[in-house]
Amino acid sequence: MRFLNRSVGRLSRHRRRPFAGVVLLLVALALTGGLYAVFSPASSAQSDQTQAEKVAKGRALFLVSCSTCHGQNGEGLKAQDGKLLGPSLIGVGAAAVDFQVGTGRMPMAQPGAQVQKKRPTFEQDDIDALAAYVASLGAGPAVPEKNQYDPSTYSSDKAKEEAVTLGGQIFLTNCTACHNFTGEGGAMPRGGYAPKLLDTDPKYIYEAMLTGPQSMDTFSDGNISPQEKKAVIAYVESMKKQPGYGGFSLGGLGPVSEGLFAWVVGLGVLVGFAVWIAAHTTRSTKKKKGLEA
Q1: Localized where (predicted)?
Q2: CA distances from 238 to 140, 148, 185 (A)
């Protein structure tokens, strides 16, 4: 009886082994097919088709909203008097489009010394399509990924603190001449100005450093590395949480506003006090003469 049970057990194990092999083979085939479907040329072709559709959509938007100044192929246009209507967009890259259109500076409402920031005209999907079309005209800076500009993506608080220290050094060296020590911005020659940074989205700060819009210098990755750009943004974000240790900030515009406050308010109070003393002295003298008379 024991011999019979052993024989049946062996037979059962032999039957399970071929069945398990078949199941393992089917799983392997399914996994291989799935990986092939993901990385196959057909998937790549589908991605290329999606990008082509986005470029086509961007061109359609460009012809309606941008070609009047920048030309039908982004080559730029000049008026009859030789004045530039819109610069060439060939080679500016997707980041420049995302910054200019995303901050509402483009399309331009009216010409001026500096284009004003305003509410965006396009939704983000349309902005992405415009950026894809302009990027297809010539190689240029791409729109940065979130981990390139968002300080919250640092791996630890220590890494973020080190980045803030580094970013502060870079900011004080390269940015304070225009944007002020507190990031409040300031006036520039020929009617321009450096905008306030404390209410600017980190992505747009990164793109501004990368593309150098309007009066701003261009800080390529060769001048300031992507890690250093992110450190600058971390420092700017830290300034939002800093209390005003000096009392009244007066807009944080530096010695100009402070000097104006001292002259207008300080001297104004002194002059008013002097006038009050003079008037009070005159009244006292008249009363004294009246009593003596």
Answers
A1: Cell membrane
A2: 30, 17, 16
